[in-house]
Amino acid sequence: MTKRFKQLLLPVAITSTLLVAGYSAATPVVEASSTVGQELQTSAASQYQDIDMDARYNDGVLIEHSSNMFWGKGERIKVLSKTGETLAYTAESEHVHPILTKHSRKMDQAIIQVDDNVYLGYGFGIDTPVMIEGDDGIIIVDPGESVEMAESVKEQFRKITDKPLKAIIYSHNHIDHISGVRAWATDEQVSSGEVKIIAQDGLTAAVANWSSNLGSLFGHRTSYTGAKHVEEGEHGTVNDGLGPRFMQGAISFIEPNTLIATNATLDITIAGVRMQIVNVPSETKDEVVVYLPEQKILHAAEVLQGENFPNLHTIRGTKFRDPAMWFKGIDVMRQFDTEIMINSHGRPVEGKAAVANVLTAYRDAIQYTHDQTIRYMNKGLTPDELVEVVKLPKHLAEHPWLGEHYGTVAHAVRQIYVGYVGFYEADPWQLEPMAYQQRAKAFVELMGGRDNIISTAKAAIEAKNYTFAAEILSYPITVNKDDMQARQLKAAAYKAWSAEQVNINWRNWALNAAAELEGKRDFSNLISFASVDVLTALPSKQIFDMMTATLIAENTVDVNMAMSYSFADTEEAFTIEIRNGIAQLHTEALADADVKIATSRAVLNQILMAGPNSLQVIASNMENGNFKFEQGGIKGFGLFMSYFDQATSPQDLMLIVR
Question: Signal peptide position in this chain (predicted)?
């Protein structure tokens, strides 16, 4: 199926258009263009992408295999077995951009063998677990995104060998790369050293951040990124960019017992397999890649985010990702003598020249985006201007590993600006803008009132200016969140816009936003980062540290109170001190704490696992003497805990209607 997309059109004479009540004719438009920087090849809008992605790519170096499962001639790589299933939506539809449909068709479920002893569980979820078979055991790289997903891959791997597990390598801290660990190993195997879990030494702290400090928000925004509140298929998610679909299930975590220092290399032989495990800061600072020197195989982890332009910033939300650190990390990988490259996401690549082609193009695209953004920032351009001039040149825009299905140049450019300079674009009104609600009311009045905004939005949608319509409809919705006409009109704009997107994240956000506007969010498939298993596996300090950010400051500005925990089994002690609106964590039991508790980390784990039934667990442990108040008592304990906030339910957390 082919689509001829309209050019992005922007209104001219905006003021006169908005101030004419009852305006209903098509909004006057001019083509958005720029005479600065590269000729428009890619942009913030899919309409600028005039790239024939339907043609099978073959430049004589990077050859897409006829099986559609890998890149190369198949001299070492072969498809060992296929299940006949795909988790992606592969049918043609007028509601799905054909480039996204083609992307989905790369994701058939299969076991791919890349050498005599290296196997990929491809297409079973968003992540690709890897099994390396050694002399007397196996090594798993990235166990999968959930226990259930990992079990499905394990079933396939165990058809190949029943050798015992010797090691698991976490490529980095993200949920899809660690959460299936309990399908493979137990706490006892890891604590005894029977199984090594290898990771960079910052991984556990990073897991604590996404699982606790901002777990509620990250989980919610990730659900929007994956369109989890709408149906799957042509009116919802069709793939997840990196892979066919994130397979939500039990989230597990076992803390690593073998650590790699920052920017260090671990040379290790496991089950007779010699490996170099190298910290390559990139997407995350704790990212590690695995190189098998005797076989010249490189596991590139997620330094390359599959066959997609990378998320130099992810719109689901994350800390600043340094693009300069990222492309320099790829340069480290280019030094390896690699004949086969496998990844956590995307299809494997065979052939030295082909691997070099992909690595070079990928790092060049990142450096180009970074450097040209910096260049134009130094000319005084702000984010809205930068996205119009920073474009990939044709040879990168058309490279098959740089399609903007996952990351985009446009949202990367905006984050590079913020990462280096911050939110302030140098116009002082931004330092003290009108209050949010008042500002919306003022804009509605300035635009000629609510009815004129509705009329103008309808005309903008008719002229296919979908995001302009959505933008102006935000103001009447902010003024009256129950304005269902405005909400439904904005939802219609987002649905129409979503069908034109080649970027899955942009599409998914639009569809989830529409569901929120229409009051039709389905929470049955919600992505949640909350996991008791993760919490109980975290070091005690991080459990208490996450509490400090939940203090209800306005209720405690006049409060000075402290509560200490002492753990007999781990010989640890912690005190949380509330002091005039802040909560400070001390890694000792303060002598003057108002409430002193003597217990064990094992009991704390029971409390964490009990969730809403935690008080009953505390009561039973008080009865058997495993939870004792050495100072204060249950009343003081209850008062202290009342000063800390509860998580907002996903149903009450609104991102669009605000």
Answer: 1-25
Measured between alpha carbons, how far is residue 228 from residues 49, 93, 233, 344, 570 in Å?
27, 20, 11, 22, 40
385 membership: H or E segment, kind and range? helix 383-389
- 65's tokens: 């295999």
The whole-model pTM stands at 0.90
Residue 521 — φ and ψ, nearest 5°?
-65, 135
φ, ψ of residue 176 to 5 degrees: the values are -75, -5
Sign of the dihedral through C-alpha 534, 535, 541, 544: positive
Name the amino acid, one letter, at 621: N
Q: Contact at 8 Å (CB) between 355 and 298?
A: yes
User: Which candidate, 621, 565, 632, places its Cα nearest to that of 598?
Assistant: 565
- 503 contacts 404 by C-beta, under 8 angstroms: yes
Residue pLDDT, tens place only, 112-138: 999 999 999 999 999 999 999 999 999
383-438: pLDDT as tens digits: 999 998 999 998 899 899 999 999 999 999 999 999 999 999 999 999 999 999 99
Which residue, 147, 258, 159, 128, is CA-closest to 203?
258
> What is the sign of the dihedral through the CA atoms of 642, 644, 649 and 652?
positive
Contact yes or no for 493/465 (Cβ under 8 A): no
User: What is the DSSP pairing of strand 9-11 with strand 29-31?
Assistant: antiparallel
641 token code pair = 């805990």
CA distance 268 to 288: 14
In total, the chain counts a number of residues equal to: 658
